[in-house]
Sequence to fold (270 residues):
Amino acid sequence: MTTTLHKLWKKEAFKTVIVIGLIPILVACVWFGMPKALNTEIYPVFAVISGSMCIPPNECDAFSHVFEKTLHVGDLIVIQGVDANDLKTSYPNSDIIVFRNPQVAVNDSHANIVHRIIDVVEVNGKLYFYTKGDGNGYPNVWPQTPTQSKDNWTSSAEDPTSTYKGAISEDYVYGKVVMRIPWIGSIVIFLQQNNIIQIGLFAIIVIVIIVGFIIPLIKNKTTNTTEEPATTQSTIKEADNIVKQFEEEQTAIKEPTMLPDTDEETTYQE
Fold:
């Protein structure tokens, strides 16, 4: 078994298949593994597309105020699922959470909201979080005590307990923001808004695979096929020479050695 694998590994075709096959496997591992690792019901990496968390207003981009303890359009954020009781609710040092708007369908791109917790209340054993965007209600923005522009969420007809007096139920909270990466989200947003660029990138990947793996493989195969007849002919010729030489040696052994005839009389001396 080991010998067979060793022989296969020496073949370029086998290596190419392995490399190409590993790419979708790695992508699938990341895609399905991250929600499990970070304990979230949804994919835990987002690009921030709303300016509701930006401070000050009208300067919300990935390049302004990079080190503020809030979020900007173009940030890439990572969330982690946690127990609702473990969320920090003491404003202004409270957690920024990602949750679903009960009024919006799950598969809608605007369903997920990223806001900060400003207060919490417990009703019938369930926690409800009051939230607000850090930049909403200017000039009453984070970290000032919020007096206006608090979120006022409305329950869906399917689930009347999804909200309580404008607060969102813990059942709709996906997790808290645990990492913020400036700028990178801008690339994601750009690609999402430009389908042609996505197609172009996919085409480039395909071209790289063809040029880097498939074409060299075909060339190697063609070269081996071209050299094979010449090698075979040379081997046959050498074999013929060996056989011919062997036959000549055998013939020489079988033929008797002839002594020359002489008519001279032998002279004996008395």
